[in-house]
Amino acid sequence: MSQTVDRALSILPLLAEGPADLGQVADRLGVHKSTALRLLRTLHEHGLVYRQSDQRYRLGARLFALAQEAMENLDVREIAHPHLVRLNEQCGHTVHLAVYEENEVLYIDKVESRYPVRMYSRIGKPVAITVAAVAKLLLADLPEPERRALAEKLDYPMYTPRSTPNAEAFLKELAKVREQGWATDLGGHEESINCVAAPIRGADGRVVAAMSVSAPNVVVTADELLTLLPLVRRTADAISGEYSGRTPVHRPDKDTP
């Protein structure tokens, strides 16, 4: 039974490359045509493949519907949270998770620092969109016309002397973030707070969320915080892999090395 399931599932990547006839499917699987036909008929009955008028097979609409339904039901916060907790245990600093919704960047999860100095950020609260590291990552992933249109209609409050002053500077920063794949806020919102962030990507490579580590200067300097960037990026990659289904589900815990 497991061999039959394995063969049936092996047909799907083949058809993802384009329509194929019975002989091509049989050759790819290394089986007789009658075996390949039986597998294709079963997949066809479930809507996972479709037989065209030219007798070639392609992926069926039901497969795309299932994929779309699965994506809609994914909860990035639920997937990310154990990883955020693990990161917090490793570094001790505040960890945030944020998403972009309806022209706002919102925190959807937070793990508090173990140090006495705490941040005022709250789950559900919009971030300072023109300076926050998570916002830069989320907006940098937008298509260029959308990115420019948004930048030009934003206000640019000068929270500190390091805040982003205008749309031109913001677009330049977003281009840099898009190229390097990570972002920082080094005193742009609060002079005493620094932040490093990395993107969480879906199966299509698009940024679906962003996570960050933040800490005040009295705990660590900006340079010291930047040394955590590789750890932050590895955590984001682990979340991305689980969210997109590229890696097996792994729930980190305190005993995991």
UniProtKB/TrEMBL annotation:
Mind telling me which Pfam families this protein's record contains? HTH_IclR, IclR_C
**Residues covered by the IclR-ED domain:** 62-245
Q: Which UniProt keywords apply?
A: DNA-binding, Transcription, Transcription regulation
Q: Which SMART domains match?
A: HTH_ICLR (SM00346)
- Domain annotation HTH iclR-type: ranges: 2-61
SUPFAM superfamilies the record matches: GAF domain-like, Winged helix' DNA-binding domain
Presence of keyword Transcription regulation: yes
Q: What PANTHER family does UniProt report for this protein, alphabetically?
A: HELIX-TURN-HELIX TRANSCRIPTIONAL REGULATOR, ICLR FAMILY (PTHR30136), HTH-TYPE TRANSCRIPTIONAL REPRESSOR ALLR (PTHR30136:SF24)
Q: What's this protein's name?
A: IclR family transcriptional regulator
Q: From which organism does this entry originate? A: Streptomyces thermocarboxydovorans
